[in-house]
Amino acid sequence: MTEIAVKLRPRKQTRISMEKTGKILEAALYVFSNSGFRGATLDQIAERAEISKPNLLYYFDSKEAIHRELLTRLLDKWLEPLRAMDPDGDPVEEIVSYVKRKIEMARDFPRESRLFANEIMQGAPVIHAVLARDLKALVDEKAKVITAWAEEGRIASVNPHHLIFSIWATTQHYADFSAQVRLVLGTDNIAFEDAAEHLDRTFRRILTPSFAEKR
Prior knowledge:
This protein is 79% helix and 0% strand. By secondary structure, the chain is mainly alpha-helical. Helix 6 packs parallel to helix 9 and helix 6 runs antiparallel to helix 11.
């Protein structure tokens, strides 16, 4: 009985427990995004969070539990812009707005993007079931919307899944390969405004029927 009670205590969402949990997750995000899951240790996370290891283990019983919680929260945030794509909106504007939000996320959440990329490159061992269920369902849903827009002649005929993959690749690149981008540009300042403008023009051309007819 005592053992079960101890395990359940952190689930009481008091102000202190929420603050502690947030501090631990923020520290873990830094450690995981820089060292990867295998290179990260509980000692590193505790030190970064400025708490003792026993205190950390009061809230999370393992490194895996912290990693899983981070990825679960991240995936929900990552899917939000795609969920916001409105079937009743202007097709081109809805899609380029999605592109814009994704490039903004690459700018504002680079560590989260690298954490997610590392999980995927490892074969998604922690969130495989969630990707296969929630992500696939959402992408399939939006793919049907994009296909309907194309069939109505409101955008060019495109493969909806590969369109979404292309958006992911061209936006998340700026976070996941930021070191390469900085080296090639020869500056520490990634001009996200320029990237956003370029991607806006690129996807507008891809989605405009007249451009597709000229190919």
